[in-house]
Amino acid sequence: MSTATQSLRPQLDRARRAWRASPLPAFLAWWGGELRALLPTTMQRALAGGADWHLLERRDGIWHLRRAGESAALAQWSDADDPAMQHQTLRQALAAVDPQDLRLALCLPAAAGLRRTLALPLAARDNLAQVVGFEIDRQTPFRAEQVAVDVRELDQPAGEGRFAAELIVLPRAALDPLLERLAALRIRVDAVDLLTADGRRVGANLLAPAQRPRRSDPRRRLNLALTVASAVLLVLALGQWLHNRQLALDAMQAQVDTMRGEAQQVAALRQQLQDNAGAAGFLAQKKKDSVPVLALLDELTHRLPDTAWLERFSLDASGAIGFQGQSVQAAKLVDALKDSPLIRDVGFQGSIQADPTTGKERFYMVGKVRTPPSATPAPAATAAGATP
């Protein structure tokens, strides 16, 4: 192991412990199992992968090979057999196992090693192997160079400010001859462990880091490449979705702007139409509510006697009439206009004067235009009576 790898090992161990302590591994395992259960059996077998552990034990000069979790032996051979035959027996037993998934563990009985449960301070968690290395002389009757050691954190309470760890020790005097015999048979093991009473692994690896085989897992690299490719495709898909959404939003915005301009034009035309309609209605109502000047002149022409004529006629916006002229008997003009349907409140303004040139009387009369009945507002009493 290189110096750089050794310096990174505490950080990697810390990250590994944090990962195991999180709920994600259990969730992903459950989720993966549920997804695999939905697939056909043939596809499940094709997708099945990962470490396939096989246990190798030696009892009374006989080697036993079995799959982890199973009690039936896949193969057996004796130390007295020919080395080539022993190696061939192992290869035949493992022929159906994918070499990339094969993991081989040398297992010794529990009595061959020593297991101690320690309560360590939390500060020792980041450098557990080095801290426990100083405990070997105190916890075991061996020196550090005489034993193969592994330590693992236990998931059990150990008191406030402490955590539980298990120290597993195996004398090298019992381990090294077995490793040498396997090396002579060209058999490399991935782990050395102890067995529990029910024949299961304790879960340790007593091989020194330098003795552990370094395996390259093409599937892991492929999975990593596929994961990266999936992430890139996901980012591209999200980017394309955002781009399409932006294009659609821009198109909608342009359409909204166009419709807003059209709506403003329609509103302006509607307002112009309302203004024109209001002006036309106002003029029509004004014309309806007013008496035409020609009608007034015609009324005066018919009601005034032939001995009278007008010199001046005026009509203002308030409906006030003024007319000036001469007549033989000007005083009778009031009676002539008294019953007019168009003119009311007729009277003289100023005095009647005789004109010495014509021998007639000069007058100036004023009056009011009579409002048409349709333009006359309803009396207050009538409006009040109509109110319930």
Automatic annotation (TrEMBL):
Name the record gives this protein: PilN domain-containing protein
Organism: Dyella ginsengisoli
Alphabetized Gene3D superfamilies for the sequence: 3.30.420.380
Pfam family, one: PilN
Claim: Membrane is one of the keywords in the record: yes
Transmembrane segments: 222-242
InterPro entries: ATPase_NBD, Extracell_DNA_Util/SecSys_Comp, PilN
Keyword set, alphabetical order: Membrane, Transmembrane, Transmembrane helix
Keyword hit for Membrane: yes
